Amino acid sequence: MAKSNAIHVAVGVIENTDGAIFISRRHQHLHQGDKWEFPGGKVETDESVYDALCRELQEECNIQVTSATPFTVIQFDYPDKSVILDVWHVHSFTGTVHQREGQEWRWVDRSELEAYPFPEANTRIVDLLAK
Ligand SMILES: Nc1nc2c([nH]c(=O)n2[C@@H]2O[C@H](COP(=O)(O)OP(=O)(O)OP(=O)(O)O)[C@@H](O)[C@H]2O)c(=O)[nH]1
Ligand SMILES: [Mg+2]
């Protein structure tokens, strides 16, 4: 069961026309620092998850989402916090993707994702994508 203090996070699996997926590396000082992640961030009060997804992907990766569908929802308890990752598959967008917050980033093939260290909560996302 989700904890009442769980942090609700909108997460985007952005896929380009070659079928590659965008990942970036979390800054070292942050929660789950140095791990790779899919872009996204906390859903604000009175904001829909979809609006949060669009806002975070604009802020972090410079794109305007034009089409996205729900992919999976993951509730996970880290020792220090609980998260609910509301993961969306982003099929189309405008703008040129790059990471605007100084994080290392790259496009990777689905088959390569398993080689990257992701936060533990992401295991199922990577499994679903690698299939
Ligand atoms: N964005 C993102 N966050 C993830 C992933 N997996 C995962 O456990 N998280 C966790 O979700 C939480 C919130 O994500 P975030 O740090 O991106 O939030 P944010 O962009 O709003 O950050 P801010 O508060 O510094 O503005 C963090 O505790 C982070 O460790 C992932 O794949 N992507
Ligand atoms: Mg973020």
Automatic annotation (TrEMBL):
Its cofactor is Mg(2+). SUPFAM superfamilies: Nudix. PROSITE patterns: NUDIX (PS51462), NUDIX_BOX (PS00893). 8-oxo-dGTP binds at R26, H31, E37, F38, P39, G40, N122. Its EC number is 3.6.1.55. It comes from the Bacteria. One of its GO terms (biological process) is DNA replication. It is an enzyme of class 3 (hydrolase). It catalyses: 8-oxo-GTP + H2O = 8-oxo-GMP + diphosphate + H(+); 8-oxo-dGTP + H2O = 8-oxo-dGMP + diphosphate + H(+). GO terms for molecular function: 8-oxo-7,8-dihydrodeoxyguanosine triphosphate pyrophosphatase activity; 8-oxo-7,8-dihydroguanosine triphosphate pyrophosphatase activity; 8-oxo-dGDP phosphatase activity; 8-oxo-GDP phosphatase activity; metal ion binding. Mg(2+) binds at G40, E60. InterPro entries: Mutator_MutT, MutT-like, MutY_C, Nudix_hydrolase, NUDIX_hydrolase-like_dom_sf, NUDIX_hydrolase_CS, NUDIX_hydrolase_dom. Residues 6-131 form the Nudix hydrolase domain. Belongs to the Nudix hydrolase family. PANTHER family: 8-OXO-DGTP DIPHOSPHATASE, NUDIX HYDROLASE FAMILY PROTEIN. This is 8-oxo-dGTP diphosphatase. It comes from Pseudidiomarina aestuarii.
